[in-house]
Specification:
2 helices, alpha/beta, 138 residues
């Protein structure tokens, strides 16, 4: 009645190094949000999934230098370098906000060699604005 203890053999998993397969995306959308204090450039696919981004604060521009046209140009170039691995050929540009670096960010995207099919301003416009204050009696 003495049962032998059978040792279970441990299966060793063979780990394979997989080459990182990056999907080739032909068309993308460049979102440029340009405020008076900062510039944020996000590159997404047509569905809206973010591929990469850059901002002037993340690139160590501090204070008043964050909102300059030069900072916007550097941010746009950095954002496009971050997504160069996707093989993007054509882009649409959506610009949002009233900041000073709008044109320089657009020029940086055009000079990067991508085919620009659309430049659109998507800054929100109030239809009737906020409710005015109550009139003062007196």
């Amino acid at each position: 009645m003495a049962e032998k203890k059978v040792k279970k053999e441990k299966r060793v998993k063979k780990s394979r190094k997989r080459a990182s397969k990056v999907a080739k995306i032909v068309k993308a959308v460049v979102h440029i949000k340009n405020t008076f204090n900062n510039t944020i450039v996000t590159v997404s696919d047509v569905k809206g999934n973010s591929l990469g981004w850059a901002s002037s604060g993340a690139l160590n521009f501090k204070g008043a230098r964050k909102s300059t046209p030069y900072a916007s140009q550097v941010v746009a170039n950095t954002a496009l370098e971050n997504v160069a691995k996707y093989g993007i050929k054509t882009v649409e540009i959506l610009v949002n906000g009233p900041g000073y670096g709008r044109e320089s960010a657009i020029r940086a995207v055009i000079k990067s060699g991508l085919n620009v099919t659309l430049i659109k301003d998507v800054t929100g416009i109030p239809h009737n604005g906020c409710r005015p204050r109550k009139l003062r009696r007196g």
